[in-house]
Each structure stands twice: as C-alpha cells, then as structure tokens.
Design a protein that fits this description.
- This protein is an alpha+beta fold.
- It folds into 4 domains: 57 residues, Winged helix-like DNA-binding domain superfamily/Winged helix DNA-binding domain (Arc Repressor Mutant, subunit A, Orthogonal Bundle), CATH 1.10.10.10; 114 residues, HprK N-terminal domain-like (Udp-n-acetylmuramoylalanyl-d-glutamate--2,6- Diaminopimelate Ligase, Chain: A, domain 1, 3-Layer(aba) Sandwich); 117 residues, CBS-domain (Roll), CATH 3.10.580.10; 118 residues, Hotdog Thioesterase (Thiol Ester Dehydrase, Chain A).
- Helix content is 34%, strand content 24%.
- It is built from 15 helices and 21 strands.
- The strands form 5 sheets. It has a 6-stranded antiparallel sheet, covered by helices on one side.
- The chain is flat, with a radius of gyration of 28 Å.
- About 3% of the residues have low confidence.
C-alpha cells in the first residue's frame, strides 16, 4: 500500500501542467497534515514536477530529462507572467527557444523572428501577425487585446497568443529569470545523474548466507553489497569485515550493518560526497522514499564528478558568481601569509548601511581559501566551517586585501587563518575549515 507521501506525489504528477498548488490545498484535498503535504511538495520540486516562481506561486511544470537544453513551455510562461491565453491554445506545450521584444520598425523585425521564439509586443497587430506567420508565438503586454483575425491565425497555426497586464520590461525580466533558474538547476549534478541503477549492481537477500556472500564476491570481484528483503527494500549492507570468522551457514541478517546510510536520487552530489568522505563510506545505496533499492553510488564516482564540476564554467551566473567575480590574486604576498587576493566592495555588495554585507565577505573569504588550496596544493575543496569576525566596518568602494595563511593540511581537511585588510588596517579575521576532495 502506498504511503501518504507517495499518494501526494502521484496526485501532483497527475495534475495538469500549469496548475497551481499549495500546502493547504494538498492537505485539504487528500486529508493529510500540512507537514506531510509540505515535505511531499518539496520532494516534487526536487524531482522536477513543480516549480516555485516569484509572484506566481508553486505550479505543476513539465518534467524534463536531464542533459537536454531545458527551456520553458509556453504554458509555463503563462504562469510566470500571470497571463491569459487569447488564441493558439493547442500550441501551449511547445518549447520557448528565445524571446524578442518588438520595439522596432516592421521591416527591421523580420530578421529577429525565428520559429519557437516569443515576440513580446504591445497593441501592434501588424507585428503580431508577422510573428505568427514566421513561426513565433506572441505575448501582448500592457493588458491590450488583439483582433479576431490574429486569434484565428494563431488557432490555425497552433501558436499561442498570450496577454499580460505587465509592461514589456517586467515581462522580459520575469521570463529571463525563469530561464536562468532552469539553466542553474541543470548545472547542479544530482545522484540521479551518476548513480549505478539496480540493473547494473549486485544485491543479496537478508535470508542468504555468508557462503552466498563469498560466492558472489569471488564471482564479481566486489566486497560491498546492499542487502534487501523480499520486497526489494533496503535492510542493510554487508562487507568483507562483517563476515570475517563467521560460519558459512549464518544468514546475512545476523552479520550485516542494519539501517545503513542511504541517499535519494534528487540529492546533490556535493552533499553526498561530504557524507561519504567524513564517514569513510565507499558506497551508498540509492533508495526510493519507501526504501525500495534503486541503485548504488560510489565515492570514486562522486569525487571524480565534483572535481570535474569545479573545473567547468557555468552557463548561467548565480549570485555566488557575481560575488566572487571581483576576486583577484595580488602581485605580491606579504610575509607570513600563504597567498593574497584583492577585492573591491561594489555597491551591489553592500547592505543598507553602505558597508559590505556579512554574507558577501564570508563568500569572498571562502573563495580566496578555495583558490589558494587549488593553485598551491592542487586540491579542490568544500568549505565546511567559517568563523568570521568584523573588527571595523568596510565601506562601499573600498579595496580590501584577503590574506589566507595555511595552518594545517591533511588527507581530508585543511585549516586556514585569514586576515582581511583595508588601507593597511586589519578590518576582519576568519578561521576557515575546508574538506579536501579526493583526487578522482
């Protein structure tokens, strides 16, 4: 029997694309607690079933396969802009490739119109008709309508004509943000991208014996296996250490590690890597919400992927990218320090007092430490802990110098002391602990 969590996920999956949902509505419809509804909605978001959009809410979206260029459908655009469909409803499931703002003369617009694009325009029916004839959908801003012949053309071509009360600038900003969010999500590697599915791994059952383990281990040259019950649900994991000096007839449920650490497919590879490194885990089972085994992930795969990801440029710029972009190595490194970095406090980096935001300074210090470990020790890292103390306020347009000093470095971690100077005066200090990623 499906759990309440599974029932909610199935309910969400069966909703029409574009429907709005909320914790309260799910709880009321399915007679579950709001806490259960909230957890299920978050799981649905991680699975790509729903998306929360600013000023719109949480909506059911089309689930797309990883690895493809992830664009929005025109139906999702309707939700993003809080708009209405005037015509061409049959084409709402088509993908948006780009958008064009029709703020130019009619003879200059044609070169910019391409199939799968969206023409953003006001009450210019000539531009609307031209866009449709060239394979583009139309978004009419400012709350304007359109003519009957334009709507008829849209219906014939199955190209949506949408309407919104927003102005052109606001609409373009909303759509651009939605596209950027999808690109960023595409960049984040999850367990689902690199795990070994059930068909590729070997398992043992709890009622099998130590002799069965030895036979399988010798055949496949592996020493760690997930242990499942008759319903293929994970109940343990068994390794060579568990069966040492155990009778060949002893069943695995007597020797296995019960309730082993496990992961879900929607988890990020970074979070899984952290857990595997600090708990000295070579493999982790991948399970569904009901603990049914879905596959296995190895530490070697995780670490190799994370190092590759750190070397790759991002397609879409995140707030983190904007924060660390001004960070530059200094030409000279003062005595007693391992490295030196210059950083300028721009207006975007400040709080309401005109001084550098605490979060921005934290990220800048963190990035300086990571760059130092990478360039001087060829080690990629994740910052785990940072204790930052302001000594003086750092004003807007100030050029600061971030000076990390390596205190100790081991196989798994590094500890770094950091001084921050402005105008030759120390303005902040930090103690940073970072986890070192194993070489893949």
């Amino acid at each position: 029997m499906a759990t309440k969590h599974d029932q909610i996920l199935m309910y969400i999956e069966n909703l029409p694309i574009g429907d709005k949902i909320s914790v309260r509505s799910i709880a009321k419809t399915l007679s579950v607690s709001e806490g259960t509804a909230y957890r299920a909605i978050k799981a649905a978001e991680n699975n790509g079933l729903v998306s929360t959009i600013e000023r719109v809410g949480t909506i059911r979206i089309e689930q797309k396969l990883k690895g493809k260029i992830e664009n929005l459908t025109f139906e999702e655009i309707v939700q993003v802009i809080d708009g209405e469909v005037l015509g061409g409803r049959a084409g709402l499931d088509k993908l948006l490739d780009k958008f064009v703002i029709g703020a130019m003369q009619i003879d200059a617009i044609t070169r910019y119109i391409t199939p799968k694009s969206l023409m953003i325009v006001g009450d210019r029916t000539d531009v609307q008709r031209l866009a449709l004839e060239n394979g583009a959908a139309v978004l009419i801003t400012g709350g304007f309508g359109t003519s009957a012949d334009v709507i008829a053309l849209a219906n014939d071509l199955a190209l949506p004509v949408l309407q919104t009360a927003y102005d052109t600038y606001s609409v373009a900003a909303l759509i651009n943000r939605a596209l950027t969010d999808q690109l960023i999500k595409k960049e984040i590697t999850t367990v689902a991208d690199i795990y070994h599915p059930l068909a590729e791994i070997h398992t043992l059952h709890a009622n099998q014996t130590v002799a069965d383990y030895k036979q399988l281990s010798a055949a496949v040259k592996q020493s760690r296996f997930p242990v499942v019950n008759e319903h293929m649900r994970l109940v343990g994991i068994v390794t060579v250490k568990d069966i040492l000096d155990k009778p060949a007839t002893m069943t695995l449920d007597k020797v296995m590690t019960k309730e082993p650490a496990n992961v879900k497919k929607y988890m990020s590879v970074a979070s899984v890597g952290h857990s595997m490194t600090w708990n000295s885990l070579e493999v982790m089972p991948v399970v569904a919400d009901n603990l049914e085994l879905e596959g296995l992930i190895t530490r070697q795969d995780v670490m190799s992927n994370m190092q590759t990801a750190q070397r790759q440029p991002q397609v879409a710029e995140t707030f983190y990218d904007q924060i660390v972009e001004p960070l530059r190595p200094s030409e000279t490194v003062p005595d007693f320090y391992t490295a030196a970095y210059e950083y300028e406090v721009t207006p975007q980096m400040t709080n309401n007092l005109g001084t550098i935001s605490f979060g921005v300074l934290t990220e800048a210090v963190s990035a300086a430490c990571q760059q130092m470990l990478q360039t001087q020790h060829q080690r990629y890292s994740m910052i785990e802990q940072i204790n930052l103390h302001y000594l003086r306020l750092i004003q807007i347009d100030t050029q600061i110098q971030i000076l990390p000093r390596l205190l100790e470095i081991g196989r798994r971690s590094a500890k770094i002391d950091v001084d921050v100077y402005a105008n030759h005066v120390i303005v902040a200090k930090a103690l940073v602990t970072g986890q070192l990623l194993e070489r893949g």
